[in-house]
Amino acid sequence: MLRMVLRLGEASTIKDKRRVVLAIKEKLQHRYKLSCAEVDLLNSVMFAEIGAALVSNSPQHGETVLRDAVTFVEDHYPVELYDVQTHYEIFG
């Protein structure tokens, strides 16, 4: 599981923020096959919290996908990663 708190420097309205957040969620869903949602800070203009999840039969694959997703967001969107947390569970 992945939790990202983003600071959106260019957003001046909730509408601007939602456009950026929607673009990020859609790209993470299509490119990395993650389940994504904006999970908190819904009424904040400057911050967004996105949660994402992935199920994999390989812990290494899961870690790589989540790490790549964070790097992608950082490199391709006008946001600052304010906080990033990952959580892994292995069942066996």
What do you see in this structure?
- The protein is α+β, with helices and mostly antiparallel strands and 92 residues long.
- The chain has a single domain (2-86), classed as TT1725-like (Alpha-Beta Plaits), CATH 3.30.70.1120.
- 40% of the residues lie in helices and 30% in strands.
- It is built from 2 helices and 4 strands; from the N terminus they run E-H-E-E-H-E.
- Strands 2-3-1-4 form a 4-stranded antiparallel sheet, with helices on one face.
- A hairpin with a 6-residue loop joins strand 2 and strand 3.
- The chain starts with a strand and ends in a 6-residue tail after the last strand.
Topology (elements, then pairings):
Elements (H helix, E strand, L loop, with lengths): L1 E7 L5 H19 L2 E6 L6 E7 L5 H18 L2 E8 L6
**Protein structure class:** alpha+beta
Coarse morphology: elongated
Number of strands: 4
Strand order within the widest beta sheet: 2-3-1-4
CATH class: Alpha Beta
Compute the CA-based radius of gyration.
Answer: 13 Å
CATH superfamily: TT1725-like
- Mean of all residue-level pLDDT scores: 92
Q: Give the termini distance in whole angstroms.
A: 18 Å
| Largest beta-sheet details | 4 strands, antiparallel
Q: Please tell me the CATH architecture by its name.
A: 2-Layer Sandwich
**What is the domain total for the residues?**
1
Elements, N to C (H/E): EHEEHE
Spans with pLDDT under 50 lasting ≥5 residues?
A: none
Helix amount, in percent?
40-55%
* Residues in β-strands, percent: 25-35%
